[in-house]
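Minutes, project huddle
Topic: does the predicted pose make sense with zinc ion bound?
PN asked that the exact inputs be recorded in the minutes so nobody has to dig through chat later. Recorded below.
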Amino acid sequence: MGLGDFFKKKFGKQICTLCGSECGVMHRSKIKGGEYVCNICERQCSKFVRLSELTKPEVSGHIEYMKRQEKLYNECFVNAKRDTYPSAFHNQAISFADEIGMFEIMDRNTSQNKVNHELFRYDQVLGYERYVEKEKPTEPGKPEIFKEAGVKIRLVGMQDHIENDMEKANMGLRSHPYVKREIKVVFHTKEGETDYTDNAVAHFDHIFGVHDNESGLFSLGMNKKEKRDLMAGVAAVKTAMAAVKVAKEGEESLTEEKKAEIQKNMEAMEDAKTGGLAEYTRRADAAEEKAWN
Ligand SMILES: [Zn+2]
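Predicted holo structure (tokens), as shared on screen:
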């Protein structure tokens, strides 16, 4: 191949493998297998997927999935009661709709001009935590410079360590079909701006039944499964200790307060099986049923 051919292939117009239109070098993306998809078709895709990792049939399937997401958004999400953090935002925000068990990641950056809204089910979430990014100082000895802060979300998928489908089902979790990477939701980029990340994390805690006095667990960087297992473990130990006390001293030895505590611990053990998610799974299933059938 001469140099001319090389440049023609690199920079010349190509045909979009999905819609057949001609697309120049600035208006296309290469997909897995070496074919190209034009910008117009790409706008129908999620902003959280990389087209270079999808084959042509996978991109087509993904676009069908995104059209169904848009339908779900219009039929069920727009009219649901929502909690959005931050409520007034410059960058990104998370909008929760508990009544359908789903959230949207809102984005002020319209440069990508995505045509379909995308929703995530609560039972697709594996973990979440607040993050702060700082940049190295330009001169040694100077303090690091604040870059951004927000919430990181990990979905159930390829990168999780729960390989067994049965185990996932027991935990009430579902793999996301397309998003395989950690999502960063940027809440603010200016130091000193009001920080709403704690509100969003608190809402996730509320969804997953984590009590306020246990939210410290998140700072240990545990994922949801580890947290749940730990909570169930703590509850089990507490209950076992109470049982030993009863065996030794008789049931009369238990105060009403202690009995209530045992009840609570036993419920925590039950919840640990699905993390209290089952209710949100039912709501999300009902919303999908309504929108798609
Ligand atoms: Zn196209």
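Observations noted during the meeting:
- The pocket of zinc ion is lined by residues 16, 18-19, 21, 37-38, 40-41 (CB under 6 Å).
- The mean pLDDT is 83.
No decisions taken; revisit at the next huddle.
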